Amino acid sequence: MRLRPWIFAALLACGGFLVLRSFVDSMTFHPAAYPDGWWDLADRLGAEDVSLEAVDGVRLHAWRVPAAGEAAAATTLFLHGNAGNLTHRIAHIEAIARAGSDLLILDYRGYGKSEGSPSEEGLYRDAAAAYDWLVESGAPADRIVCHGESLGTAVAADLATRRPCAGVILEAPFPSRAAVAARVLPVLGPLLARGFDTAAKLATIEAPVLVVHGTADGVIPHSLGRETFAAAREPKELWSLPGAGHNDIVERAGAEYGRRLRAFYRGLGAGL
User: Exposed site from 52, 92, 185, 264, fewest CB < 10 Å?
Assistant: First the structure.
């Protein structure tokens, strides 16, 4: 039986749409698997290897790093962006530890030494497994800070809706993947790129929120950071860093980065 031309065209269009959407999904994640990275820096950081298991059985790897030189004011679960692995976040690790927080930095499935392949729901499961490991290891839930970077901001926001936390730090965040896609490909972009809806989740989070965004960010524009900030509930703070791009916030901020984090940690439980 021959298909009518319009039916054939519709099927072709649907097939093309699904192919494009699958392509967009595959471009979301850029993992660097072991041995890529600077794994030899673990000793310098005082990092301890941690093995985790997500609820679906995927084995995950993380580093645990103690606060530097003082009793920890908080415990940070750091959720990195979509590229590389945890060894590419040395500047963040050192700055957070110096600011007075113990740290667990996770590699999502497919990244670093972690098994599996990344997906949105997979990343959410991975973050929950890391959080649960912290609590089981003795970290009080009311001192855990969910700290996300870039794509990790969506993971941090999701985690804060699933687990109690003391605070949420979002570096270079975006309201949703559709909002980012709309800047690149209006109309069609938001249809292809769905999920990672940070703004909707922030509206339900009661913990203090600190949003950090560079004014010269060429990957996720500062305007999207402001839009994300607007979606958050009080107490909240926006730190716009003049001249900083997407990947140099720690370096551009210098000592001020540590001062801001230290003030945030010390203010937990008392508002920002």
Answer: 185
